[in-house]
Amino acid sequence: MATRGRAVALTVALATGPLLLVPAEGATAAPPAAAAAAPGPGTNYATDDPFTSERAAWFRDDRFGMFIHFGAYSNLEGEYKNPDGSVCRNAEWIMRECRIPKDEYEKQAATFNPQDFDAKAIVAAAKSAGQKYIVLTSKHHDGYAMWPTKQNSWNLRDHSSFDKNRDIIAELKQAAEAEGIKLGLYYSIWDWHDPDFTSSSFPKYKERMYGQLKELIDNYDPALMWFDGEWDADRPTNPWTSRDGEELQTYLHDLNPDLVINNRVGKRRVTDGDYGTPEQEIPQGSGEGQLWESCMTINNNWGYVYDDNGWKSGAQLTRNLLHTSSRNGNYLLNIGPDKRGRVPAPSTAALKEMGDWLRSSGQSAAVYKAGFPGVVSQPNWGVVSQSGNDLYASVYQWPGAGKPLHLTANTGFTVNGASVLGSDQKVTVTKAGDGYDITPAGDATNPTATVIKLSITPAAPTAEGNGTGLKAEIFDNDQLTGSPKVTRTDPTINYAWRFGGSPAENIPTEHFGTRWTGTIEPRYSEKYQFTTVSDDTVRVWIDGKLIIENMTPHDGAVDKGAIELEAGKKYSIKVEHTEQTGEAFMKLLWSSPNTSQQIVPKSQLSPN
Ligand code: FHN
């Protein structure tokens, strides 16, 4: 992150010229926005490793959140009657997909009155599901703000039939906080309603957008910002760029350094924000180079549609949650309240079914603070997650009497004990082939997933190293020629220079390169996967072997290479990165059966 900007008068240096926050006509003056730290040579926006940082610990541990799509579109409940009597159907995209004239849409929004919006009931539904955080749409693509923004009058306070003394985001914040549930806010960059959301007057739109975001952060203190609508689009044209994303992340982290931000703040890349956002799918992988969260509808639509009864079963939703947890991912499951603010009963029923499973027999241990089980491969009879020295095998296909479940081991470990959560049946574990055979003596405890807990003793790690980092030779050219301009020790290789930054103040933001050298000391004897997130080129040698090479200048790219290493040995390591033009990134992560993915820690790196 840029060196912390002081909250001073409000000029933010933007690619599109200085940003002076002035209110739109008709709105009262917005409070000044904090200044974003002016980027420049020497700026590194990566201030921590989301895989290990305290800042993102709650996000990694909580695993399960509630998404809420609620806005002016909800007032139509999925259907718009055209003047000719024909009917057009859609949910939160109804204004655009049904080509509703702006004045018509505004007219319908003026009747919006979610008088039955009950924050406590919504939080109770989240709690009954076991959801640990909530993300509410504060402003969707239709530009309608669900809080009393001062940036314009297109909002639930000034343009509705709702009680003008109520603030549903404040109500939700208070209700969530009372139950220990974190509140996140969704905000769409793409705006179909704001007249300045065009390429020619985009700076004016950004003035209001930055003003609104400051209101949200100042007034509701969200733990997370969920951006959306970052993609290139027309009707209206979306001019949002990755440079805009860089500036916005800086601005937000100057307002709140602890904020967790998704990758749609930029252009939905592995280099944007803290985590990736696969949507309506449960990825097979475990996310390389970035944390991730899969968001999904509970029926077929994000916003409320009166006749959408395509409800997913509690069992399927629970298995989706188990799958994401077993791959170090989070699951953000959506509800869409109706025009009165009520949560459809089938939603709460499915959510409760999930919570009942989690609360039963301590089965939630397979989800909360659990993650990718590097020591074993995922089986075909269910999914396995790991939490500390416990493996949680969630079995979907229970074996026939006396038949084993086979688990392939990726490294050596011993099994000290095995039990079925919620049952006192005997579980026999025997070494077999490339892993273990697990044979339960009794029946499954439930049709969704029966959990077998295996307590293991993994290989003992060597003592943590006392490394100080790698020798860095930094060149003011992208050929790594001549003498390095800067020679120093870098504790880790965790750099997001983006457009505005560079490795040092005397290194330009373009055409530079770095060579890191030294030794790396693994703590386990096993195969290590090294992952780089780089822009423009990268090469990595370990023990003299070239294990990663991507020399074609590229935007943020993930490259991987693996090598068997022996605990306690120090291996030579050399990493070369070059930046030509545009954005620049260089991160070096590792993982192994016993090491969760992380930026290679300083303790295991030495400059000589
Ligand atoms: O266009 C939106 C859509 O309406 C919904 O909000 C989803 C939820 O992640 N996001 C966008 C589509 O990717």
TrEMBL record:
Keywords attached to this entry: Glycosidase, Hydrolase, Signal
InterPro entries: FUC_metazoa-typ (IPR016286), GH (IPR017853), Glyco_hydro_29 (IPR000933), Glyco_hydro_29_N (IPR057739), Glyco_hydro_b (IPR013780), PA14/GLEYA (IPR037524), PA14_dom (IPR011658)
SMART domains the record matches: Alpha_L_fucos (SM00812), PA14 (SM00758)
E.C. number: 3.2.1.51
Domain PA14: start-end pairs: 465-604
Signal peptide: 1-29
Family: Belongs to the glycosyl hydrolase 29 family.
Role noted for this protein: Alpha-L-fucosidase is responsible for hydrolyzing the alpha-1,6-linked fucose joined to the reducing-end N-acetylglucosamine of the carbohydrate moieties of glycoproteins.
UniProt name for this protein: alpha-L-fucosidase
Annotated organism of origin: Streptomyces coerulescens
Organism phylogeny: Bacteria, Bacillati, Actinomycetota, Actinomycetes, Kitasatosporales
